[in-house]
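lol ok so funny story. i was supposed to be doing the assay writeup but got distracted and ended up predicting the structure for this chain instead. priorities right. anyway since i did it might as well share w the group, maybe its usefull for someone
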Amino acid sequence: MSEEIPPMRPEPGEGSPNDTAAGEADPTVPEAAATEPKATPAAPKRWYIVHTYSGHEQKAKQGLLERARTLGKEEFFDEILIPEEQVVEVVKGAKRTSKRKFFPGYILVRMELNDETWHIVRGTARITGFVGGGGNKPTPIADDEVARMTAQIKEGAVKPKPKIKFEEGENVRVVSGPFANFQGFVDEVRPDKEKVRVMVQVFGRATPVELDYTQLEKA
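and the output, tada:
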């Protein structure tokens, strides 16, 4: 009888190139499942109050936008708001509409705050710095506060507000309407309706007349 030759066992370290020990990674296969480092999530953009030279708010806004664009950081800045409203006044009998700032010398900037953007703002001409907080960590303002300002701006654009305010007992002159050039004094102010009751002399008698703000000027 012929003897059966037992199968040869590979010596340690030998074997098929495709054979790998259990639990060991094949060095010839790239680690496709390797975890890539996650990018740091961007900080949320918030509204900040920025102080400027009074009367230079528009130039400060343009300067900040241009500086951010030049440095390739414009994506960190969303919006720059100059809080202002339309107002109407009577000058030499003619109505004139102009803009009045809510807060002269200040602008609102919606931005992502970090060391770079902080220095971009501080390094812009006609800007003196942030308002609130200390150092390079200014305190943001709430979105609802900005929403109220924006609503006020839109309201003023549709219906400009009178630039001049009147007080009871103040001497005024009527500049338009049937009582033009009459003089009198303010008897009552109704700011909710932007109307004034004025006492004028008609045929020698004090007569109350209700007029719009824009029909009067201070005597």
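The chain has two domains: 46-162, 171-218. The chain has a mean pLDDT of 81.
back to the writeup now i swear
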